[in-house]
Protein 1
Amino acid sequence: MGERASVRLRTTGFAVLVMAVALIIGSFALLFLMRSSLRAGIETTAEQRASALATQIETYGLPAPSEADEDELAWQILDAAGTVVRSSEPLTDSHITVTEDAGPYTVVVFASLDEVDDSTEALVTPLLLGVPVMLLLVGGVTWLVVTRALAPVERIRREVESITGERLDRRVPEPPSRDEIHRLAQTMNRMLARLEDSRERQQQFVADASHELRSPLSSIRQAAEVAQSHPGALPEGELAEAVLEESGRMQRLVEQMLLLTRTGTAARRRQDVDLDDLALAEARRMRRAGLTVDTSGVGAGRVRGDRAAMAQVVRNLADNAARHAAGAVAITVRSTDEFAELVVEDDGGGIPAEQRERVFERFVRLDEARARDDGGSGLGLAIVKEIVSAHAGTVTVTGSPLGGACLRVRFPLMGTGADMS
Ligand SMILES: Nc1ncnc2c1ncn2[C@@H]1O[C@H](COP(=O)(O)OP(=O)(O)OP(=O)(O)O)[C@@H](O)[C@H]1O
Ligand SMILES: [Mg+2]
């Protein structure tokens, strides 16, 4: 929860505060309105009494002194000099006064405010008790409602807590309501699905890698066993040859696997890379191996990226072309406003249309027997794909006019600096 109070506490506190302010203002307003309306009533009565007295004085003259007592309103009659000439019982409590002229005399009526004070008192006690009770009620209800609303979150949390690496197939409960909590649960579940998926792929990779490493290892072991149990049975140097060949295959495999795990970080080094330079260097290497390489289509093609990784892309494509070509390979580099493109073609057997997606998967070889002889591990194109996508590019296979496969790598020129993870 951290430094701040829990959502539940804050919501409840806020609700109680708002309610308290509203109730206090409401109570004061109620008291004020009630008092002023009672006062107005009393004032009217006093005024009526004063004018009745004045009329009486003007019509019949001053009342007899004894007449005063019957009235619940106290009054005085003053002469012009301000001397009290007649009066009722004197009033002691708080009161309001109303005056009225009656010829030479002035009538003053005193109205008691006792009734107003009594009514106020009668209201204050229930308010003093009622307001806290209301606040308690509001606080309690808010607390319960928020607790209920948060209950699914707690259920999700508990489920996630219990999902370990071993049990990634589990999912959190998705509440039926179509709200933020529902969406949170959905997002959690999608995340769990991705975790499960990547874990499966990782396990598959480890399984494939182990499988791949097992066959050169057992070849080495077999040769060594034969050499040990039948000394002289193997022709001179055959053991060393077998060990060299198989361990070379293993080394290549291990290097490629390392490369695969590293492509993500490699892509973060950014420099200007000239695809044409890489292509021409690769072509020279292939020519030394006796292949005919057509580089007439190599134009400028500058992209931003990791030079070593890009060189690996060209190398893997060239290796494949060299391996499968009947005799001729063509490399093309060109760039437009939108992308830079590298194309490697050969005149070999090509890749059947239905396999053109699959060849980019790890450890996929189309011609098992031949690939084994050649020492291919099936990782070359997977590495190409990984590096190219890390540079926001695409790689596709089509058929080549030369007769074999055509592998086309494209890097968007605006997007190569974009984020990749
Ligand atoms: N130019 C090509 N012509 C025909 N088939 C190809 C070509 N390039 C790739 N392939 C097919 O695609 C498969 C996968 O290629 P990839 O480069 O991934 O693996 P590999 O070449 O067998 O092994 P590695 O590259 O790890 O040594 C190859 O085994 C091959 O069957
Ligand atoms: Mg290859």
Protein 2
Amino acid sequence: MKIIESAIKLMKKGYVCDYCLGRAFGNILTGKSNKERGQVIRQVLAMAFDSGENLDVDLSNFHGINFRNRKVEVEKKSCYFCNDIFEKIEEIAEKIIEKLKEYEFNTFLIGTKLSSEILQKEEEMIEEIGAEFYESLKSTLNREIGKIIEKKTNKRADRDNPDITVLVDLEKNTISLQVKSLFVYGEYQKLSRNIPQATWYCPSCRGKGCEKCKGTGLLYSTSVQMIIEKPLLRATKGKKSKIHAEGREDIDVRCLAWRPFVIEIIKPKIRSINLKEVEKKINKSRKVKVRNLKIVKDGRQLIRKIKTERSEKTYRAIVTFERVIDKKKLEELKQLNGAIIFQKTPTRVLARRSDKERKRKVIRFSYKLINKKTLELIIRASAGLYVKELITGDNGRTKPNVSEILNNTPKKILLDVIKIHRGE
Ligand SMILES: [Zn+2]
Ligand SMILES: [Zn+2]
């Protein structure tokens, strides 16, 4: 029998524990644990041995078995293939449970890293008996430790999307946790002209705090992100956050439209939070308002979707010019309605972005004279059009442009995003 021959080959190497003996044939029969498989094979071989057959195995494999016909004293050894790791899995599971206590979670996954010595022995096992029915030590351990934790915590092991992944490093003898971020979707309005969307750290100290930033670590004292994350970090006991939004407005631009975003809370200890309360707290701010907050399960996928949405936007710009506006020229602005705009990367972002020319569209353009020097413009534009440059011309890098048409220089631009045309 091939199975018996294979078992003998393994047992010749040294003592093989029930788990390892069983997992060598782990893909034969269902409803049996590897331990049970190992016990059965060992008993069959012990019977053959007791009946007088001579087996070419390390006799330590029969330690603890009572023979009727043979008189043998056999010593106890540790498992050649796993170093008796299975005797320690209860203890390992206990340590993991202790670490997990800090976190609220529903699902988990165990991952083990084996020492190079043990990995070498895995290779040997496959060389001896092939990999046809074999189950690796790693997956056996992951499952067995997982089973203990499931039983003791009432939480579920989940391969696909675990709240916490536990990494057991058997070489370094460490246990570490990878905690899945908590993703909260929402839509925000930015009502201030001097805060960035994401938190900007001080470039001199990168957030540590220095003289330049007066110890705050920040370039701007607050941000949309900081205002939104504050009650969320408190409620989840999370470490920090990342904000992912569909585009962003410049620091001095207000966003009166509701801009979709996902805020990612890193290493949350609490996952079930009262978002109505969070929303109330955020909305006490005069600078930022939010609505429609909800926890999303597949955050990464939603972030990808939000980031690739290329919605048209409508802006309102109040533009004050240096000189009195020439009323005859005003009519000529109509050419911008439906115009294709050729736009080289704006001078102000050249340091961060590559210099190239893009083609964007002004879908709708209207204007209203507010006073002799001031115009109100309503501009609906395709995604990615730089509106300030459409107005200033950016030294001819954007064409056509308002400044050139009016032959006048804008002195001040107050810009608001007033609508994000999602799905239109
Ligand atoms: Zn073993
Ligand atoms: Zn600093």
